[in-house]
Amino acid sequence: LMTDTNWLEVSLLVNGELAEAVADVLARFAPNGVVTESTGIQFSNDESEGVAVGPISVRAYLEVNDQLEETRQKLEESLFYLGMIQSLPAPVYKQIADQNWMEAWKEHYKPIPIGKRLMIVPAWMESPEPSRIPIRIDPGMAFGTGTHPTTQLCLELIEKFYVERLTFNVQRSTVIDVGCGSGILSIAALKLGAKTALGVDIDIESVINSRENADKNGIGAELILGQGSVAEVRAGQFAFASAPLVVANILAPVIIRLFDAGLADLVEAGGAVILCGILSEQAERVREAAQAKGLVLTEQRQMGDWVALSCEKPVL
């Protein structure tokens, strides 16, 4: 039986730190985006909670056409240069018949329970646990799909903030998400009780992607999105310039730079900042940068190589 094989799947299994760099390389050659996911979800004894474990699978689909050999050669070349910086496994290729490719892509995604109350659900599925708050995400982007440990840690700490704080003070109702990516953190904060969220990213694609994900979650004007970073928020370019909760799920060197740009000034007195995207060996430098701006560490969580920090701004 002949089937038209219109797609060539290329995949690499890499550790967490390399996933983003590999995804960036594949994205140059894959018209339909790149999929990254943890290779395993480990469940607790009562199966109530899952966490992402193991190396990360990065996959893309190349169109089978006259340019395929050339595309593949360029892709291998780009991976070779990346491999000179840090060793990479060889890419694995697999042919996929056209009608199956969307399904092949989708079957890798399962709902992931987070913390006590959240469930990340692929946009095309129903949540298996109606008691949890569903966050619908279309995993078309490389990061921010919920399978990555940094996203999960961040969501757990956001949930904890709203569960513990909101009962005391309903004014704690805004959140600023710096480097919003897919918008997943802002969407979660709004579903957990924030009245308004401001998501900013220097990448306009992230802003567009965040709006699409907000639409899938029935979230409208309460999520304000814009291109920019700490400087633009501080300069008053958006609806508010500070909030009781600030979240930043970006890489550690960027977080440290943002502290110099005034990240701590976005946090209201008595409020908190949640910092993720930090590899364990970088955690101390981030803690020091936060403390230098007068913030107090209240919690540190770790999953695999990744660390998330929650810090409070004291009321003077």
What does this structure look like?
This protein is α/β, with parallel strands linked by helices and 316 residues long. Helix content is 32%, strand content 33%. The protein is built from 9 helices and 14 strands. It has helices spanning 16-27, 68-85, 101-106, 149-165, 184-192, 204-216, 230-234, 252-261, 283-292, and strands spanning 5-14, 34-43, 50-63, 92-97, 112-114, 118-122, 133-137, 174-178, 196-201, 223-227, 243-249, 267-279, 296-303, 306-312. It has a 7-stranded mixed β-sheet with strand order 10-9-8-11-12-14-13, with helices on both faces. It has a 4-stranded antiparallel β-sheet with strand order 2-3-1-4. It is globular, with a radius of gyration of 20 Å. 41% of the residues are buried. The model has no long low-confidence stretch (mean pLDDT 86).
